[in-house]
Design goal:
single chain; mainly beta; 10-stranded antiparallel sheet; two-stranded antiparallel sheet; 1 helix; 12 strands
């Protein structure tokens, strides 16, 4: 019995603990489902709860037809080094919002300011400046091209909106102002390009 315990102890000391950890690879990062574009205000919101969140255009957000995926750990699915980890889920309106400083959150459609459900939990979006999109590692997986949509941050409410979102109702002003210099990309779930 003592020999078995000594052998087990010796084995654990000799084999580095790092060998039990997952290795570095080009695997796709962890992603969260149930994000949609609201067909009324064009912000991206979390639709995985009974309440769809407060929409500035009135009532709750209305789901678009395409489900989106958000990176939960990093932007390693992109060859670009441009990654923003300053996106959060607002517990009041259910929208995806941006803030580099949580003490300076922008106006929320539910009233007051955006408030993250958990300030330690961030979403990661690839940002890009220019007319084209960056190159992604998973552009062609299993013979299918993955679709990414570009969007912007509203200057008034700091919500992430799709390209069509400019001019729609906004909590931080009369309408969304999407004239930002960077594009941010999200992935469509379960849909090859050309829906």
């Amino acid at each position: 019995m003592k020999k078995s315990l000594l052998f087990l102890l010796f084995t654990l000391l000799v084999i580095p603990l790092s060998s039990f950890a997952p290795g570095n690879s080009d695997e796709i990062v962890s992603r969260e489902r149930n994000w949609f574009t609201c067909m009324k205000c064009f912000t991206v919101f979390y639709g995985g709860r009974q309440s769809q969140g407060v929409c500035k255009a009135g009532g709750e957000h209305q789901r678009g037809s395409v489900e989106l995926l958000l990176n939960m750990t990093d932007c390693s699915d992109c060859y670009s080094d441009n990654c923003s980890d300053q996106f959060y889920f607002c517990k009041n309106c259910s929208s995806l919002f941006y803030t580099p400083d949580k003490s300076k959150s922008a106006p929320c459609a539910a009233g007051g300011k955006h408030a993250a459900e958990n300030w330690d939990f961030k979403y990661y979006l690839t940002k890009y400046r220019g007319p084209d999109k960056p190159v992604f590692k998973d552009e062609n997986v299993n013979g299918k091209q993955e679709c990414r949509f570009d969007g912007y941050i509203c200057k008034n409410c700091h919500c992430y909106l799709t390209s069509e979102g400019g001019g729609q109702p906004c909590a931080g002003g009369k309408t969304h102002d999407a004239n930002m210099s960077y594009k941010f990309f999200v992935l469509a779930a379960d849909s090859p390009c050309g829906f």
